[in-house]
Amino acid sequence: MPITSELRPDGVRLVTMNAPPVNALTVQGWFDLATALDEAGRDLATKVVVLRAEGKGFNAGVDIKEMQHTTGFDALLGANRGCYAAFKAVYECAVPVVAAVNGFCVGGGVGLVGNADCIVASDDAYFGVPEVNQGALGAATHMARLVPQHMMRTLYFTARTIKAADLVQFGSVLEVVPRDRLDEAALEVAGEIAAKDGRVIRAAKAALNGIDPIDVNKSYRFEQGFTYELNLMGVSDELRDDFAGTNKGGKA
């Protein structure tokens, strides 16, 4: 199963992505992730979620090859709606979400962690939004929650990546640890949260979302509108075809 959910006795729920080779999720994978997070929030036994991944990287975005092998716009619409649902599910999860990021976290991966409440990363982790390379837009909303405005714009226009260690200075990544200690570090933070009164933590999550200066759901949906335009223009298909022909993973 690409998405699994496991509740520990201490109330920490592990939601894991495991979609080899690079955790580029299919349309169904994004919706399955959203469902797992929604269900976690509804389960009162869940006090905190740790969003993690198996494999060499956290998340490589959408499965571009699935999109290119589907006629019409069904895959595009499905991927956009699936990403929207998954990002929204992280943000609106009734309990805090701790992201444990290993290796690459690009495109849709940034959408997930940008909406998380706490980020712990391994020392090989890096983040990026390479959408412009594939004729798409999106996740600037979420990258802007990780880095200052001008840094976000530079990363977005150039499709450069930034190391997790560099995000510590901005306060968006809590700590960077060796790869073999990532789960331990994430569980340590999650354990601190789980030890609190769950009723208070759920109220705190709702309160913090309520005072957020940016509506991340509307902001991301606005970005997606330009992705639709680029697809109608034929630009996106051209760039995705080039990408799919030279890359085995598929990411956006």
Automatic annotation (TrEMBL):
Q: Which GO terms describe its molecular function?
A: lyase activity
Enumerate the UniProt keywords alphabetically: Lipid metabolism, Lyase
Q: State the Gene Ontology BP annotations.
A: fatty acid beta-oxidation
Q: Which domain of life is it from?
A: Bacteria
Keyword hit for Lyase: yes
Query: Which Pfam families does the record match to this protein?
Result: ECH_1
Question: Membrane spanning segments where?
Answer: none
Q: Which family does it belong to?
A: Belongs to the enoyl-CoA hydratase/isomerase family.
Q: What is this protein called?
A: Enoyl-CoA hydratase family protein
Annotated organism of origin? Nocardioides antri
Source lineage:
Bacteria, Bacillati, Actinomycetota, Actinomycetes, Propionibacteriales
